[in-house]
Amino acid sequence: MPVEILEKIFDEILPSRAMIEIGPSRRDSLGPSGLCLNWSQSQGWRVPELMLVSKSFREAVRLQHSTPIPALGPNDCLIRVQAVSLNYRDIATPLGLYPGAGKDGIVPTSDGAGTIVAVGDDVSEFQAGDRVCNTFFLDYQDGIPTAESRAGSLGVRNDGPLRQYAVFPTTALVSAPKHLNARQASTLPCAALTAWNALMGLGGCRLQAGQSILTQGTGGVSLFAIQFALALGATVIATTSSDTKADRLRALGVKHIINYRTDPNWGETARKLSPNGLGVQHVLEVGGEATMAQSFKAAALGGCIDIIGFLAKKDGEPSKVSFWDAFTGLNVVRGIGVGNRKQFGEMNKFMEEKGIAPIVDERVFGFGEAREAYEYLKKQEFFGKVVIDVAKE
Ligand SMILES: NC(=O)c1ccc[n+]([C@@H]2O[C@H](COP(=O)([O-])OP(=O)(O)OC[C@H]3O[C@@H](n4cnc5c(N)ncnc54)[C@H](OP(=O)(O)O)[C@@H]3O)[C@@H](O)[C@H]2O)c1
Q1: Where is the Enoyl reductase (ER) domain (predicted)?
Q2: What is the pTM (predicted TM-score) of this model?
């Protein structure tokens, strides 16, 4: 990158107090102008202990000052992170509810959006000034996941975006949809892509106009599934435990709403409400073992049960489902692991075409309020994605 562009970045894009060390691979190309400085004022939130099980996010995540920026490799981009959104996984990990081992001292979270401020020597896909989202995995480009691609998930074993500046390889970046601001774009890498993959990721099961879906609760994945399904011309049946949120769902265009707390047989009810009582083509299973039996009741013959989450883990015993449920219903039971970068691009195109804007909760947190954001997510009183605006004081 020419020195004059770097000077522009330092003068205009980076905050004046921030100084940067690009790393050994970039030093030689910077010449004698002395632009290689020590990064001294960046900040990042970190998870301090391996597989931390804590009742308090005060212990579980800690703000670290003066974090050094990693070296910028030839295929890396330096991102000024503008916004980060939270997912259930981000609270489940420090609370010890998330499967799999975490890593000591990592930067948590998986979903961020920001602006590129510098690129490595071999980067041609992006340039400084581009608005991007990071992907959930460091390198999962296409097709079905592999053990290697899964190992690259952010926020548990690899540094996520909850910091002021981050370096990601181009394999972990996509262009942000043009019509979205950074807060909205930060909600896409996990929840949105998971919903998109569930509804559109399997040939033969892609949701079509005139079909119907059942969503469980009003968390991030469910709300994105609702928005995508409505934009596709499908009918949505949704559950929630809250009357207030039911009103919000109705305003979005959801046709039928069931309270899963007052109607324990909500799956059967959803089936009755579906067109001709034949069941729905997709059930987005975010409840887990405790909700699976109801999901089978709601699914149409040949309908897809998208295995996504485990929110209802504490709500009761695992429900009894068996080989025979899927066999007699001819159901597709499909585990979902977020999605790949190609799907991310397809989803963004669809969102641009349909003008879909993610629903962001009315309460947005500043960078220094990350712990409060975690607490807020845990209370489940939000409607829309919980976002930390990294630039907001
Ligand atoms: N497999 C994957 O690739 C993948 C990707 C993303 C997320 N996930 C998982 O999917 C689940 C949802 O994630 P998220 O980030 O969307 O969660 P979230 O935003 O934290 O969702 C919270 C909401 O879930 C609803 N909920 C809670 N308990 C419920 C229950 N027993 N039955 C039905 N709904 C319930 C509540 O909605 P109401 O307030 O309306 O009742 C609550 O507000 C989590 O388990 C997460 O780990 C998996």
Answers
A1: 56-388
A2: 0.91
User: Domain 193-335 carries which CATH code?
Assistant: 3.40.50.720
Judged by DSSP in three states, 225 sits in: helix
Task: For residue 159, report the phi and psi dihedrals to the nearest 5 degrees.
Answer: -60, 130
> From atom 4 of ligand 1, which residue's Cα is the shortest distance away?
308
Distances (CA, A) of 218 to 46, 103, 293: 28, 30, 20
- CATH-assigned architecture of domain 3-187+358-389: Alpha-Beta Complex (3.90)
Cβ neighbours for 336, distance < 8 A, ≥ 6 positions apart: 194, 197, 198, 201, 306, 307, 308
CB-count exposure of residue 369 (10 Å: 0-12, 13-18, 19+): middle
Distance 108 CA to ligand 1 centre (A): 19
- Whole-angstrom distance, CA of residue 270 vs CA of residue 292: 14
Q: How far is the CA of 312 from the centre of ligand 1 (A)?
A: 8
Residue type, 135: T
pLDDT tens digit sequence for 92-139? 888 777 777 677 788 999 999 999 999 999 999 999 999 999 999 999
Maximum pairwise Cα distance, the chain: 74
Helical pair 220-232 and 193-200, crossing angle rounded to 10 deg: 50
Please tell me the distance from the alpha carbon of residue 344 to that of residue 338, in angstroms, as a whole number.
10
DSSP 75: T
Distance of alpha carbon 258 from alpha carbon 269, whole angstroms: 8
Rounded-to-integer distance, Cα 380 and Cα 289, Å: 20
For the chain, the domains span 3-187+358-389, 193-335
Whether residue 173 contacts residue 126, with contact meaning beta carbons closer than 8 Å, is answered with yes
The yes-or-no verdict on residue 316 having pLDDT over 80 is no
Residue 156 CB less than 6 A away from ligand 1: no
Q: Cβ(191) to ligand 1 under 6 A?
A: yes
> CA-to-CA distance for 230 and 57, rounded, in angstroms?
36
d(CA 275, CA 285): 20
